[in-house]
Amino acid sequence: MPIITKKSEEFLQAYLNNPSPTGFEAEGQKLWLSYLKPYIDEWGSDNYGTAYGIINPGQDYKVVIEGHADEISWFVSYINDDGFIRVVRNGGSDHQIAPAKRVNIHTKKGIVKGVFGWPAIHVRRGEQEKIAPKLEKLFIDVGATSKAEVEKLGIHVGCVITFDDEMMILNKNHFVGRALDNRMGGFCIAEVARMLKEKKKKLPYTLYIVNAVQEEIGLRGAQMIAEHIKPDVAIVTDVTHDTHSPMMNKQRDGDVKIGKGPSVTFAPAVHNNLLQLIRDTAAAKKIPLQLEASSRSTGTDTDAFAYSNSGVPSALISLPLRYMHTTVEMAHKKDVESVIKLIYETLLRIKKGHSFKYF
After folding, report:
1. Which of 200, 223, 259, 325 allows an S-S link to 332, with CB 3.0 to 4.6 Å?
2. Residue ranges in the chain assigned as alpha helix (H)
3. If we measure between CA atoms, which residue out of 49, 103, 96 comes closest to residue 75?
């Protein structure tokens, strides 16, 4: 029986289509909490907007499952006299995909539509044809003829900008869109909460379902919420690169393919005993699993949880993804369901007071 229901897929589509740029995640968090609330006992949020649900509150032993809510975006940095807008990144936005993309500029007056402009191929002759879409060359056109006209629309320096793209399903089994990194993680942990509720599972500990903010600019939301919750264990889910698409390098970046199951990472921040529990769970429940290694940090919220509060046993479960930080990020439905199932089954194996100490 499929894990993802029609209702949950409808939520996923609404959740992915809703903009949630770093530092401006509030509306997306409200949407996520609205879906989550029937499956939890309590909920809360911190000062910067990280949202969380709680199952079986009040226990001494606390487990976190976590994804991050924010998406990459842009800021208005300058408006010239002719009404063209220059930008800076908010997170790791890809300047090479920006030309000719439609955008939404978020203002107090509402959304203002615009486009990333680019000189036509007809006029790019000789050396001009070699011009790459570097960050300093990007500009947005909102159809205005002056700075005053732009400002009248409610646009000012500091307005945040997101790409105007919506989710689609490709070949019946691939989710495609912007911000699968990592609202797909937020979706997965919400589905875990739903399954626990619908299957009437009683956990011997308090479970926090955490949707953190500001991961894309340095794991900041996870740092804050880890100090607030002070968990005993943390299982983080994020995305990882499918290395089988063209121009990828498996020898350098690892051997991971969408449709072949979630990936787990060996890294200094990943607790070996917790990782082994996850691998044993996958084997017992016949959940396909891929392996990766990171030489230093994982680059995910796993690092923030692991090194908080004198050390929290933490592990990373990753969803294979193609075309990360573009508007056509792609994940396989089977992998999404396997991430959900793996987290769910692992939680059922964690005991009250479970010690992951080495000795």
Report:
1. 259
2. 6-17, 26-36, 147-152, 180-198, 220-229, 250-253, 272-284, 301-306, 333-349
3. 103
Q: What is the pLDDT of residue 257?
A: 98
pLDDT digits (tens, 9 = 90+) for 121-137: 888 877 777 777 899 99
Which parts of the chain have pLDDT scores under 50? Answer: none
The 3-state DSSP class for residue 329 equals: strand
Question: In terms of domains, do 217 and 233 share one?
Answer: yes
CATH number (domain holding residue 265): 3.40.630.10
DSSP 22-60: TT--HHHHHHHHHHHGGG-SEEEE-TT--EEEEESTT-S
d(CA 99, CA 116): 5
Domain holding 188, by residue range, is 6-71+178-349
pLDDT at 2: 80
Q: Which tokens in the block code for residue 84?
A: 């063209």
Q: What's residue 1's pLDDT?
A: 65
The H or E element containing residue 163 is strand 160-163
